[in-house]
Amino acid sequence: MHKTDFLIIGGGVIGLSIARQLKRLYSDSSVVILEKEPACGLHASGRNSGVLHAGFYYSPDSLKAQFTKQGNERLRQYCEEKKIALNQCGKLVVAKDHTELPAMDELVKRGKANGIPLQEITEVEAKEIEPRVKTWERALYSPTTATVDPTHVVNAMVNDAKNEGVQIHYDSGYQSRQGAVVQSSQNSYEAAYIVNAAGLYADHIARDFGFSEHYRILPFKGLYLYSNEPSGTIRTNIYPVPDLRNPFLGVHVTVTAQGKAKIGPTAIPAFWREQYESFGNFKFSELVDVLVRQAGLFMFSEFDFKRLAFEEIQKYSRTHLVQLATTLMEGITPQQYETWGRPGIRAQLLDTKKRKLEMDFVLEGDDRSMHVLNAVSPAFTCSLPFAEHVCEKIQAQLGN
User: Fold this and answer.
1) In Å, what is the CA distance from 375 to each residue of 43, 60, 138, 242, 262?
2) Phi/psi at 383 (5° precision)
3) Contact 314/306 with Cβ under 8 angstroms?
4) pLDDT by residue (tens digit) across 268-289?
5) Helices assigned H by DSSP within the chain
6) How far is CA 49 from the centre of its chain?
7) Are 71 and 386 in contact (CB under 8 A)?
8) 385 prior amide bond cis, ω within 30
9) Which of 31, 55, 154, 361 is the 20 to 30 Å CA partner of 1?
10) pLDDT interval class at 245 (50, 70, 90)
11) Using CA atoms, how far apart are residues 135 and 97, in angstroms rounded to an integer?
12) What is the pLDDT at residue 303?
């Protein structure tokens, strides 16, 4: 039996950031992270796009809007302090025709409300930033959007956590809970307070504590195609105007920290939670549960899930994905994009009562445990201030 003051389930960027903040707030307390894998960040934290978002997509009353600007600034500063390669390449948001201009205007409103630097520019000015870009009459330019290799950030946070006195127990996946005792695949842990930051399995664990009553995780697979053009060929990230009714931003062009271009991601409905490759990590019970949830969305969702699923499944076709990217930029051919990157899985929270995908971060907890149920994009960008927010909630529950 291991005794600890704080037990964090999940060693991704959110779990690491929460653990470090708890150690700052309660310096004399013991903090242990349970990580089911042999290293941290092997799931969403190490497989995301690496984009540090600026914060102009999100409605001003959301937690995402509250934390993205500050998260962008602090994570860029963190990368500079740790000498982690950072590509401060910015981002263009482009319209394919006049019908998308009202949504672009909405992004401008949100950017102003959230205090985000955002430039309204002409088509000519957009081409000065990236000569190959395609847009209708005008575009938006975000100078504070940047890209980084997320695995380098996770590794730096792991080193910091260990140096600060946080213990990380690897190969130790959560199995069950009985009162204050958590059983992992390796040991039993008696914890005064438990934080669930388990990503794809956060809802499953939360139900063992009496939470996530009408929430379930739906997995969506994200794939990128990498360009074989030389680094630096494309100067900036290029995004379409998003459909603000759903949490996905559409296929875009991303420039990595090393200057290589990639197109994607997909948001293909997965059939079990860790369906990275064909039948890897297959779990029949998850397949049944996910299919039931997806069937419910097909019939009753507040948005057109059927259309979304059909459009996303087509993106398994390399040719089709490349074709979608040609609406953003000149000179894109299938011959340039032949290499698929590592798949990632988005742990998207579904409200089963309202039959809708949650757009914002979701927390539930009490004086014994706190559960991070929805920490989707831009959670990587928001990780540092979001962790402070979680810990403020924990302090309020503990009365100190």
Assistant:
1) 13, 18, 33, 20, 24
2) -55, -40
3) no
4) 999 999 999 988 899 999 999 9
5) 13-25, 44-47, 63-81, 101-113, 123-129, 150-163, 202-208, 284-300, 305-313, 318-325, 379-398
6) 8
7) yes
8) no
9) 154
10) confident
11) 8
12) 66
Q: pLDDT (tens digit, 9 = 90+) per residue, 91-138?
A: 999 999 999 999 999 999 999 999 999 999 999 999 999 999 999 999
Q: Is 200 helix (H, G, I), strand (E, B) or coil?
A: helix
**What is the H or E stretch that residue 57 is in?**
none
Q: How many beta carbons lie within 10 A of that of residue 187, not counting itself?
A: 13
Q: Edge-to-edge, what's the strand order for the sheet holding 344-351?
A: 268-269, 215-222, 344-351, 356-357
Unique residue bearing structure tokens 């995301």:
48
Residue type, 86: L
Tokens of 98: 């006049």
Least confident piece of the model among 218-222, 306-310, 346-350: 306-310
- Which one, of 400, 307, 23, 10, lies nearest residue 170 by Cα? 10
Rounded to whole angstroms, how far apart are CA atoms 400 and 184? 29
Average pLDDT, the chain: 95
262 within 8 A of 213, measured Cβ to Cβ: no
Helix (H, G, I), strand (E, B) or coil at 214: coil
pTM: 0.95
Q: Are strands 146-148 and 86-87 parallel, antiparallel or unpaired?
A: antiparallel
* 167 token code pair: 């213990």
- Most distant pair of Cα atoms in the chain: their distance: 66
Question: One-letter amino acid identity for 265?
Answer: P
Q: Using CA atoms, how far apart are residues 139 and 124, in angstroms rounded to an integer?
A: 10
Q: What is the DSSP letter of 128?
A: H
Question: Is residue 190 predicted with pLDDT exceeding 90?
Answer: yes
Is residue 58 a contact partner of residue 70, using CB atoms and an 8 Å limit? no
For the chain, domains (ranges, CATH) are 1-50+149-214+359-400 (3.50.50.60)
SS3 130: coil
Residue owning tokens 């979304």: 308
Closest by CA position to 129, among listed 138, 83, 396, 230: 138
